[in-house]
């Protein structure tokens, strides 16, 4: 499950797309090709810029939740792969866990090993704030990945996704498509994620605001659990409740596997759907253009690779190659691009399985 900081923080952050993060932080990827090559992580080989020139050796400690979701699994894989691109970086990863106390203990172990920099994606940002502060107090800079700590004193730099922006971009795509179809009074469904999470609230608010600007609104909204099973059940309920839909936004592409299964089972195709997060399955469906899924808004799993690059730069007291400032920024919000059939080939390499 994905979670980032409060919307207010997002508005203050430096809003950057992956392609604008500077020559020391450019992202690309290699994935399976038509010849069946095994998947590789979303990484970028070190370039010849000053920020990528080998320097002081940096040991980066890494902690994230258990890989029980495609996006989280990609986070850990991408971090490890990116560290492997640098000859001056050692990578020490704690075992992933969804137990707050276990993650705190794992990070304490990394602190005791005196790693140079820590990259932490907390299972619960609030609960892990104290351990981030403990690392900072010990002189170990912390790169807080996505789920934000409660106190900015607990981290040196935050990098993560834009949940509100996901909703906005999904809404804007829905509006554009409906207007192109000449539909003035649409029936719009929203299949949200876990409703008590801030990320879900932010995504829904962004979607609502984008629709409202065009005079549209959500007609039916139900929350799932970021799983395929819950997506199938919730979408089945929505389809039974509404005999006609014009558009659907599903917050999460893993959840979307079940949503699509319910749609196929019901034999419905009168509407179009937008996904969320940017899974490979979703992008392949978009490319094939054989079903209702026509777009997805990405929540880049490549952010962990960027976090490793940032940790290295911080550990070496370097700045980002294309920026004038001598230090890494204190916060970076990644852009949620809208992927359609027209640009899917550009984004497939950074999709997650």
From TrEMBL:
GO MF annotations, alphabetized: carbohydrate binding
Record has Signal as a keyword: yes
PROSITE patterns: PROKAR_LIPOPROTEIN, TAT
Cellular component per GO, a single term: cell envelope
Signal recorded as keyword: yes
Database matches in InterPro entries: Peripla_BP_I, SBP_2_dom, TAT_signal
Record keywords, A-Z: Signal
Family per similarity comment: Belongs to the bacterial solute-binding protein 2 family.
UniProt-recorded name of the protein: Ribose transport system substrate-binding protein
């Amino acid at each position: 499950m994905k979670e980032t900081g409060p919307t207010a923080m997002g508005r203050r952050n430096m809003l950057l797309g992956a392609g604008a993060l500077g020559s020391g932080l450019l992202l690309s990827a290699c994935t399976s090709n038509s010849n069946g090559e095994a998947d590789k992580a979303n990484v970028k080989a070190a370039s010849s810029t000053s920020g990528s020139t080998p320097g002081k050796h940096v040991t980066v400690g890494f902690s994230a939740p258990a890989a029980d979701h495609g996006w989280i699994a990609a986070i850990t894989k991408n971090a490890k792969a990116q560290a492997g691109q640098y000859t001056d970086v050692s990578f020490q990863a704690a075992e992933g866990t969804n137990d707050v106390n276990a993650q705190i203990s794992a990070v304490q172990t990394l602190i005791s090993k005196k790693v140079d920099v820590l990259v932490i994606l907390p299972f619960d940002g609030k609960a892990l704030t104290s351990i981030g502060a403990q690392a900072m107090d010990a002189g170990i800079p912390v790169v807080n990945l996505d789920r934000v700590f409660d106190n900015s004193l607990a981290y040196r730099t935050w990098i993560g996704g834009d949940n509100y922006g996901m909703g906005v971009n999904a809404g804007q795509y829905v509006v554009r498509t409906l207007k192109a179809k000449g539909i003035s009074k649409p029936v719009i469904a929203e299949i949200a994620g876990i409703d008590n999470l801030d990320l879900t609230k932010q995504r829904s608010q962004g979607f609502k605001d984008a629709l409202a600007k065009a005079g549209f609104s959500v007609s039916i909204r139900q929350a799932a659990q970021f799983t395929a099973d819950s997506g199938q059940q919730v979408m089945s309920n929505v389809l039974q409740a509404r005999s006609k839909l014009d558009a659907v936004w599903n917050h999460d592409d893993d959840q979307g596997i079940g949503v699509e299964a319910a749609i196929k089972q019901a034999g419905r195709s009168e509407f179009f759907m937008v996904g969320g997060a940017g899974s490979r399955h979703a992008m392949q469906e978009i490319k094939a253009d054989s079903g209702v899924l026509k777009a997805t808004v990405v929540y880049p799993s490549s952010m962990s690779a960027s976090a490793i690059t940032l940790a290295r730069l911080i550990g070496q007291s370097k700045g980002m190659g294309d920026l004038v400032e001598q230090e890494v920024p204190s916060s970076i919000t990644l852009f949620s691009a809208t992927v359609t059939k027209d640009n899917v080939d550009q984004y497939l390499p950074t999709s997650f399985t």
